[in-house]
Structure formats: C-alpha cells, structure tokens
Design goal:
about 15% strand; 3-stranded antiparallel β-sheet; globular; alpha+beta; about 120 residues
C-alpha cells in the first residue's frame, strides 16, 4: 500500500459511496509497519484533490461515535474526535484542506487499527 493508494481510498468512497474496508485495513497495516509521513500524504492529496472531497464525504457519512471527523470550509478546516464522553473530544484547526485531510487519514488509520486490535483481528 503506497501513500497514493491510501489517499485514493477517499476518492473511491467519493465516487462510489462504498467504504473499502479491505483497503483501509491494508493501509492501516502498512502505516503500522512503515508510518506514512503527513507531508507525503499531503503531497499526494495536492496532486489528487478529488481524494480530499472523498474523505470529507467519508467523514460526513459516519453515523457512529466515537469517531474522527473532517470538516472543510472555505477558510477553515477542522479535524476532530467526537465522543459521547466529552472529556475525550478534541479538535485541531487547519488553514489548508490538504494538510487537514492528511491528518484525518492518519487518525482514521490509527483508529481502525485500534478497532481491529480490540476485535482480535489485527
């Protein structure tokens, strides 16, 4: 799994509306063994801006918590963690949608790994 392939998970979701959990798991495993640098993901996202739109849709279509989210507005981008337990909630502001999306992807990969570990599937 390359950084580009990882970024394209969002583009695929944006085009199909279907979460490719096999690809997400492969990306999470790749990241666990050879961590993706945020700068490398950001570079790929700049080359493929449709992937950012797909990751935004991925985030907006979530119907569960706790979960990471990505909000992209004209002048502000937000990456955060929402939980019913308010003490777990957190967020970070970004001025750049590509950097924000790269940060969101890394959180998604780490969160998915944690989920699989908890289920004994890692």
């Amino acid at each position: 799994m390359t950084p580009l392939e990882c970024c394209q998970i969002g583009a695929t979701y944006g085009a199909t509306g279907s979460r490719d959990l096999t690809a997400l798991q492969a990306a999470a495993r790749a990241h666990a063994h050879f961590p993706f640098a945020i700068e490398v993901l950001e570079k790929e996202l700049r080359r493929h801006p449709e992937a950012v739109d797909g990751w935004v849709r991925w985030s907006e279509d979530k119907r569960w918590s706790p979960a990471w989210y990505l909000s992209v507005e004209e002048r502000r981008c937000l990456v955060g963690y929402f939980s019913a337990n308010r003490s777990e909630c957190q967020s970070s502001d970004f001025k750049d949608r590509f950097h924000a999306c790269a940060a969101f992807i890394l959180h998604e990969l780490e969160d998915y790994r944690t989920l699989l570990e908890a289920k004994g599937e890692w």
